[in-house]
Amino acid sequence: MRPFNLSVKNFSPVFWHTVLTSTDERRNELEQLSAELAQLESLRAGADYNTGSITLAAAWTLYATTRYFGFQRALEVGTFIGKSTWSMARAMDREGANGEIATCDASNDIQLPWNGRTRLTQYKRKTSTQMLASLNGLFDFCFLDGRVTDEDLLLLDKVIDQNTVIALDDFEGMEKGVANLFKLRTMPKLGNHFLIYPASVEQLGKLGFSSDSTVAFLLPANRIALSNQ
Q: What separation in angstroms does the CA of 63 have from each of 106, 122, 167?
């Protein structure tokens, strides 16, 4: 008997339909997040290395995913002006979790004006390798917005397990998100992780977003369950 095969291409829209389905119900939360992220733009003036930041649509996918899975401990590579950090932290606050986020920026020392319950530990002017070397315990979520090195993989292996969800920014073409995927696929702990493509422009457009998202996810197979309803 042949098994039922569900491809990444077909599963990804189902994943996003489920995770983003309550966007209309959370319209007030989206409006608040949008306003807060817009205010973070002023932090660019203090950046030594001024680069791009995630779109509102990408920020919302991080927010919605954090709320859906109830992440409590996250690490992030690539803080910059903090839009992704803020989105995850605000979602943790909404869930009422005693959240914690460790985030690094190799090029800048921008202090994020965060005053929520979730605890932020910023590693300013620290590389991903330097941050990872100083972390202890396991993280249930990891957002990578920077290139992962071979040394990073060895350190990352100590702070994640087979249940950790991974997010990859710039997952398109030959950008760093795709390069990071190939490196991460060499880690035995991620051998049963299922790739989720970024939410499509069509799906995001139906929810009222004019921007796109390039954030992909690696989801542990044991976090996928079939339901009769």
A: 24, 19, 12
